[in-house]
Amino acid sequence: MPEPFTVIDSGTIIETEASVAADRVVLSGGPGALGWEWKDEGLCRGEVCVPVRDPEALRAGDGIDLEEFARLLGRPLAIDTDERVAALADAPTDRAAELASLEAPDFTLPDLDGNLHSLSDHRGKKVLLIAYASW
Predict the structure, then answer these.
(1) pLDDT digits (tens, 9 = 90+) for 11-70
(2) DSSP-derived secondary structure for 111-131
(3) Which one-letter DSSP state was computed for residue 104?
(4) Rounded alpha-carbon distances, angstroms, from residue 4 to 99, 124, 132
(5) What's the rounded Cα separation, in Å, for the pair 110 and 116?
(6) How far does CA 56 lie from the centroid of its chain?
(7) Phi-psi region for residue 35, left (φ > 0), alpha (ψ -120 to 50) or beta?
(8) Predicted confidence (pLDDT) per residue in 40-54, tens digit
(9) What are phi and psi of 59, to 5 degrees?
């Protein structure tokens, strides 16, 4: 019986339902739970479509096997069935392209006075970032 389940997809938190048996997670509602849909071309989200050679390996009744879904997209997956949560990371090829661009991802942090500063506010300028960790 499906119960609440959380999928973190590239940092986006998606609350859905899933059936968990051993280490197998079947998301209710199929790929639509993660914003994908079945089309003639395969699984699609927006303009991106991924061909599916064996749809039956991906489908599990009315749901979709989360591990097979991640394998199809070539994306790393970490599942904690006890906590009913899974993290679906970006594909290594996407990460490699981001690293090759030599452009840091944008983020916003407060200064000591509580004023927010975004890295994107300083594009084209040299920026010195100092990070500290207590461990």
Answers:
(1) 889 999 998 887 789 899 888 888 898 888 888 988 888 998 888 888 887 888 999 999
(2) -TTS-EEEGGGGTTS------
(3) P
(4) 35, 45, 37
(5) 4
(6) 23
(7) left
(8) 888 898 888 899 888
(9) -80, 145
Q: Which amino acid is at 90?
A: D
Q: Tokens in use for 125?
A: 């300028």
Contacts of 6 (CB under 8 A, 6+ apart): 13, 14, 15, 16, 84, 85, 86
Tokens of residue 34, six digits: 């993660």
Nearest-angstrom CA–CA distance, 39 and 66: 19
For residues 41 and 49, give the distance between their C-alpha atoms in angstroms, rounded to a whole number: 6
Amino acid at site 71: R
Tell me what percent of the chain is helix, strand and coil, each rounded to the nearest 5. Answer: 20, 35, 40
Model pTM score: 0.68
